[in-house]
Amino acid sequence: MHRKKTADGLIANFKPEPMGPLATPVALTPANFGKIDKVYIFTEYDHAIGLTLQKSMAKTANITKTYSLPTSHTPFFSQPGVVASILSQEAK
């Protein structure tokens, strides 16, 4: 029943992705963005971005701390408490 409730919630709140954020170039500088410690949550069963690619992206982005969850691409739906806990911990 939990999966059905989650799926129903996703369907009810689904909205098309806006193109602006995807089409607008972003300039990151070492002086600003480069100073921030970066954290990444690996999603082990992600079929949108596979774990091997996630690890490659994290290495390229100089990620300083990682977490790994046995979830799909949307851990904020399947494990919202765990994701909230990680975000809360990292915000300190």
Description:
- With 92 residues, the protein is mainly α.
- It is built from 5 helices and 2 strands; from the N terminus they run H-H-E-H-E-H-H.
- Strands 1-2 form a two-stranded parallel sheet.
- Helix 3 links the parallel strand 1 and strand 2.
- The longest helix is centred in the first third of the chain and has 12 residues, at 2-13.
- The radius of gyration is 16 Å and the shape is globular.
- The model has no long low-confidence stretch (mean pLDDT 91).
Give me the Rg, rounded: 16 Å
Residue runs with pLDDT of under 50 for 5 or more positions: none
Strand order of the largest sheet: 1-2
- Count of individual helical segments: 5
Q: Report how far apart the termini are.
A: 35 Å
- In percent, how much strand structure appears in the residues? 5-15%
Order of helices and strands: HHEHEHH
Describe the main β-sheet briefly: 2 strands, parallel
Shape: globular
**How would you state the average pLDDT, rounded?**
91
SS class:
mainly alpha
